[in-house]
């Protein structure tokens, strides 16, 4: 599959869903990607959104690679979101 997948620098904390959300543009269409607070704490430690955002930014390239593979593998949930675990 030849998809163009881009990740703009627009990550943010979603308090309602308790996750960091970040968009991916797949052939011009937006796909929402996310990492839950539980997953963030497991991966990076910390206990607060600001710490997790900083960790996300430090590990952006690896997380985007992981999200890209999940998108290519069509691992969206029923709402069209890609959740990294």
Please describe the structure with a list of short key phrases separated by commas or semicolons.
Double Stranded RNA Binding Domain; DUF1488 domain-containing protein; 85 residues; single chain; 28% strand; Shew3726-like_sf; DUF1488
List the total number of helices.
3
Number of domains: 1
Distance between the termini: 24 Å
Proportion of residues in β-strands:
25-35%
Unreliable spans are none
Q: By CATH's scheme, which homologous superfamily applies?
A: Shew3726-like
CA-based shape: globular
Along the chain, the helix and strand elements come as: EEEEHHHE
The CATH architecture assignment turns out to be: 2-Layer Sandwich
Structural class comes to: alpha+beta
**What would the average pLDDT be, to the nearest integer?**
94
So what's the oligomer here? single chain
- CATH class, named Alpha Beta
Protein name: DUF1488 domain-containing protein
Pfam family, one: DUF1488
InterPro entries: DUF1488, Shew3726-like_sf
How would you summarize the topology of this molecule?
Elements: E1 5-6, E2 12-14, E3 19-26, E4 29-36, H1 37-44, H2 49-58, H3 60-72, E5 82-84
Parallel strand pairs: 4-5
Antiparallel strand pairs: 1-3, 2-3, 3-4
């Amino acid at each position: 599959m030849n998809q163009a997948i881009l990740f703009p620098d627009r990550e943010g904390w979603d308090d309602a869903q308790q996750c960091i959300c970040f968009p991916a543009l797949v052939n011009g269409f937006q796909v929402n990607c996310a990492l839950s607070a539980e997953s963030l704490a497991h991966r990076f430690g910390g206990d607060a959104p600001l710490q997790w955002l900083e960790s996300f930014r430090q590990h952006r390239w690896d997380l985007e690679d992981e999200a890209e593979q999940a998108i290519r593998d069509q691992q969206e949930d029923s709402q069209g979101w890609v959740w990294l675990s």
